[in-house]
Amino acid sequence: QQQQPQPVTVEDCADKGYSVVTVRCRDRPKLLFDTVCTLTDMEYVVFHATVFAEGPEAHQEYYIRHMDGCPVSSEGERQRLVHCLEAAIRRRNSEGIRLELCCEDRVGLLSDVTRIFRENGLSVARAEVATRGSKAVNTFYVTDASGGAVQSQTIEAVRAAIGQSILRVKDEVYPKASPTAPAPESGRLSSLGSLVRSRSEKFLYNLGLIKSCS
């Protein structure tokens, strides 16, 4: 049986004095942002990076050193770096908002509920359906159509359509809408999530903490 490749590897590039970090995993929104922030939080400087995506897979390669100019120097440090980057990859891979529906069971109830979800742009990542006597007790884990977090006003619209007393939010982790929030400044790390726009285009990018290796 073919062994699955590791999502994160760290190798030495002795002739250049860098450590080479390679990330291969399923692409998702803000993956680039999360991996670069992890590297900078750990006080590594990225001197060169190549990022591209093919189909659903993302490929990221970083040439890094410590802020003092030294590459990764021990196996313990290498394992810590791998562990932190793997945690960053998993960071936003949640099942979504958990909604619990409790009401009198009836024919067509599940169909009606999922139709309202679809009409409001929600996708059901997982569902647990049960009955207790005459009651339907259903749990839905929902995301937006792209698998991301759901805005609070969308959840409230769904609850209004289904019934606020019977559909309850159990995990209130959705982001609050902020239409008046200022746009991020050009070149800031917060804009990195929008860098990978083409699934087949390979490109180099430069930002404040990435230095030219020329």
UniProtKB/TrEMBL annotation:
Entry superkingdom: Eukaryota
Location of the ACT domain: 98-180
Keywords, in A-Z order: Nucleotidyltransferase, Repeat, Transferase
MF terms (GO), sorted A to Z: amino acid binding; nucleotidyltransferase activity
SUPFAM superfamilies per the UniProt record, alphabetical: ACT-like (SSF55021)
InterPro entries, alphabetized: ACR1-12, ACT-like_dom_sf, ACT_dom
Record PROSITE patterns: ACT (PS51671)
Transmembrane spans: none
Pfam families: ACT
Function, as annotated: Binds amino acids.
The protein's name in its UniProt record: ACT domain-containing protein ACR
Source organism of the structure: Anthurium amnicola
Lineage of the species this protein comes from: Eukaryota, Viridiplantae, Streptophyta, Embryophyta, Tracheophyta
Gene: glnD_47
